[in-house]
Structure formats: C-alpha cells, structure tokens
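Appendix C reproduces, verbatim, an entry submitted by the partner laboratory led by Prof. M.T., so that reviewers can inspect both the input and the predicted structure.
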Amino acid sequence: MNEIRLWTCLKKYAPLFLLILVCAAASAGLAAVGPLLLGNATTVIFNGIMSKLNGTGRMDFDAIARILGTTLVLYLTSTLFAAVGSRLTAEAEGRLAHRLRRMMAEKLHVFPAQYYETHAAGETMARMTQDAETVGQNIAQGFWQLSTAVLTILGIVAMMIFISPVLAACAALVVPLSWAALWLMAGKSERYVRKYQLLQTQADARIEEYYTGREVIRAFGQEKEAAEAFRQSGTQLAGAAWKADFYSNTMPLVMQLFGNAAYVLTALLGGVLAFRGGIQVGGIQAYIHYIRILVDPIRQTAQSVALLQSAAAAWERIRTLLEEPEERELEACDAEGRAGTETRRASGEIRFEHVSFGYGEELVLRDFSAVIAPGQKAALTGVSGVGKTTLVKLLLRFYDCREGEIYVNGREIRTYGRAELRSRFGVVMQDVWLFRGTVLDNIRYGRPEASEEEARRAAAAASADAFIERLPEGYHTVIDEEQGGLSRGQKQLLAIARALLADPEILILDEATSSVDTKTERQIQTALQTLMKGRTCLIIAHRATTVRGADLVLRVE
C-alpha cells in the first residue's frame, strides 16, 4: 500500500483552512495598527500639553477623538475576524477528527483476521478516539494559533520598522535568538511528547483489558497484581508526561525572557533617540507597546509548535493503522470469482485436498483431506489446539492455505470473491456477538431487508420467541453492549434465529453448546436440528451429544 500522508486527509478542507488564514491575517493586521494609532494619540496629547505650557496653542480634542474612534473600530473589527476564525477552527477540528475516525472504521472492516489476533483492542480504540481527537483538535488549533502568531509578528515588525528602523534593528538582534531557543526546546519536547502519547495508548489498552477481564481478575484474586502492574505503567506515563510538560511549559518562559530583554533595550535606546529628536514620544510609547505584545505571539508560536508536535505523534499511530494491509489486497483471484455465474442455491459440497497451514513457522494443519457431501452433517473433533477452528477460518478465507486447496461446490475458494464466498455460510459461534440495538435488529443482522414477521418466524423456529416475548418491550427491547439480562443460552438462541433468517447454504457450528448447562443444551439442540435441516453442516464439538447424529466424524490430530 502507498504511504498515506496527512495532506491527503487535509486537502479536502483546504478551502476551510484558507478562510481561517484570511481571518487570521485580517485580525492580526488590524490589531497591529492599533498601537501605532494610540501612539499618535499620545503624540497629539503630548504636543497639546507642551503647547499650552508654552502658551502657543491648545489641545486638539477633535484629532484625539478621531484617532481613538478609528482605533476602537479597528479593534472591534479585529475581534470580529478572530471570533469568525475561532468558529471556523472549531468546524475544521470536528470535521477532521470525524473523517479520521470514519477512515479507521472503514479499515477495520477490511483488515485480515491476523490483525485482530496481533493487536490489542484497547490500542485500536485509543487510536480511533484519543488520537483522532488529538489530530483534529491540535492541527486546527495549532494552525489557527501559528497563523495568528506569525502574521501578528510580521505586522508588529512592519510597524516597528515604520516607526524607527534603528529600534527595529535592535529588536532584530533579539527575535532571531528567541526563535533559535524556541526550535531547540521544541526538538526536545517533540521526543518526549511522542513517548508520552505511546505510553498513553498502552495505558488505555491495559485499562480496556482490565475492564473486560474484571471478573477473571477477581475470581483469581489478582486485584493487587493488576493494580501494581498499572501503577508501574502509570509511573512511566507520569515520568514521560513530566518531561513533555516541562519542555512545553518552559518554551513560553524562554520566549518571555527574550521579550523582556528586548523591552529593556528598547526603553534605553528609545529614550536616547527621543532626547535627540529622532523619534516622537508617541512613537516610543507605541514601540514599547509593540515589544510588550510581541511576547504573546512568540509564546503562542511555541504553544502551536507543541500542539502540532502532539498531532504529528498521534498521526503516526493513525497512519500505521491506515497503512495496514487490507484483506482484499490478498485476493489474487477475486476478479475471476466475481465473473462466475454460479447460483446461490448450489449443492453445498465441501472438499479439503492436502491442506496445510500454520500461523507461524510451525504448521497447525498438515496434509488434511476430507470430503463433505451436500446436505451431510460432518463433525470435527480433536483435542484443543489441533486446528479445528483453523479449518473454519480457512474455509471462510480469513486465511489462505499454505499448501493444498479447498473447494466449495466444486470450485476452489480462491476463485470466489470473499463476500460471495462468505454469503454461502451461516456461523453460530461459542461466544455470541450481539451489538447494541433491538432484539429484532440483531436477528435481522444477516438479512436487514427481512420483515418483522419473517424475523418472528425465525425466532419461533429457534425456540427463542418465548423468552423474547417476556422482555420489557419484546422484539423491540434494546440490548446494551453487555447484553445485560440475557443468559448464554438465550444469546445462543438469538444467534441461531439470526442464522435461520439468513438462510445459509452451509452451516458452521463452532462449539455452539459448550458453555451452557444440559437443560439449555437440549433446548439449543432442538433449535439446531431445525436450523441444520436440508443444509450441509460442519460441526466443531467436544461433547458426545453434539457429535451424535452426525453423518460423518472427522478427527483432527
């Protein structure tokens, strides 16, 4: 896959960022003229006072009123542009974060199975939530602050040169030094910011593990050990955060130090120039004001650099996820598969020919061959870890065989498109996945277009309608993310109803009754008999009751 650059995500919002830049330029430019006008007012007042003292004139209140009125209009207009720019920045922030989350969500649906087996769920969640928010917020805020700061500095420098090139030359000695110090500190800050955000992601993943495994932690009395492990992780995170915050917070202080130095030099040199008549009193006042406010945009520059560094670190983790190889990149024969004309209700034959596969160097399956005839019920047995579930993953093309071939309906599965191949299968797993939504939505997951009446018939055939009707709102009861209030057996019955409604050609049952009691197992077995009727079935099981009635028993060793 080609490298994904941040600009690829940002260019869609280029007009929005251009408007932000225009607002920053207008706000900074108008604000930069304000001190000059106030300095002119000071000169008029000073000259009026001196004229009255010398008896040669009077105070020009009309001129003062015009200058102050113009200054007020300039500052109000500058504030208006700043408000509009801030509003546009918030808009850019939200849009960019939303786009990144959407891009990552789309990627999650096309990742190969090995991605989920090699990456912690908490780490992925942190990238989709925290990192996406960091990139969106820090880039938008950083761009606004940096644009405003740089343009303000340019405007102030232009005004300083206009007032007195000599004093501007003095400031020119201080500003480059402050910028050099800024970039030196920024380099150190970036390193610790990246480390902090990496440790933060790891801490989020650990929290997610502890939350999902809380019952096991308590059952084995590992609360103290878990707390100690998190304490050590938190200590590392706190250390990295301290260093990152130290350099980030030191940069504004360094900028302020250089600003104060420039202020002292300007006051001394400006006094000498005024004594010699080289500058008006109002010019000195305006110049000193410029020196004082110059500290703020320099500090703002340092802050914006820190924000952009944080965004860059977060973007690197997002980019890593976005550049993960997609499942379709492994489909060498998908185009040929899509050109096929085979009907949906085909025979349902499955044939394994000399299949070998391993997740690493060591093979899990070696030279496995078997034929499951159409409509046959085949049971896969064997001790844990010999590759029974791996055969299912190969059949569904979550992985591809290292050696050998697998045929469905007489056609090698790598000539199918993955979506076309998987549409032929219905799967009932040991661990049932139910999403947040109504019971009806969960049953219709395999066929969203199915009517409510069809879903009810499927639930009745699966013996699930009785307990569903007892729920607070029946089929329209919302199940939360923990499926609170539903037993394992009830969840299995919902999964069977879902598979019934999808009406698959081939059915895969992966330990579908291994985690329920005997009574519930009998209820589920009754539902499964309805589900398996007229279908080719591949059953993975350890219990003799599950294997009983199978037409073919395949022992994997």
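The chain has two domains: 6-327, 336-555. Additional entries are available on request from the coordinating office.
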